[in-house]
Design brief:
There is one protein chain. The protein contains five helices and no strands. Helices cover about 50% and strands about 0% of the residues. The chain is elongated and about 55 Å long. The protein is mostly helical and about 120 residues long.
Length: about 120
């Protein structure tokens, strides 16, 4: 069964400029695939098709992207949402190893991601 999502050319907003998420994802994928693409040169529909095309291509240097976020956490649309259980658990383990006390109670996803990066550097994890 086909859905409307399977046919971006038929989207009502398909001719609109790509979203910031699409542009960021295309840039990240293009870099990992060794391809040059200007994400601003396509519309929403074309961006969706380009993302699918890039996802199907092999990554040129898989080790260079391993462990790195697919997007800059400071641009996440859900960055202010409460940190995930995995994030807070990871922070707790690394903070203990670093000899720190970190409260994650009111921490958002972006702040948690940045804290994880900071603790990774301190602990070597």
């Amino acid at each position: 069964m086909s859905s409307q999502l399977d046919n971006p050319d038929g989207w009502t907003t398909g001719a609109d400029p790509p979203t910031e998420k699409q542009k960021s994802f295309i840039s990240t994928l293009a870099t990992s695939k060794g391809v040059e693409i200007d994400p601003s040169s396509v519309n929403k529909s074309e961006a969706s098709a380009k993302i699918n095309e890039l996802k199907d291509q092999p990554t040129q240097n898989a080790s260079s992207t391993a462990g790195q976020p697919i997007q800059d956490p400071n641009t996440w649309s859900t960055g202010d949402d409460k940190a995930t259980g995995k994030q807070t658990g990871y922070i707790a383990v690394m903070a203990k190893k670093a000899g720190e006390t970190v409260s994650t109670e009111d921490m958002g996803k972006t702040e948690a991601s940045n804290k994880i990066d900071e603790l990774k550097k301190k602990t070597g994890m």
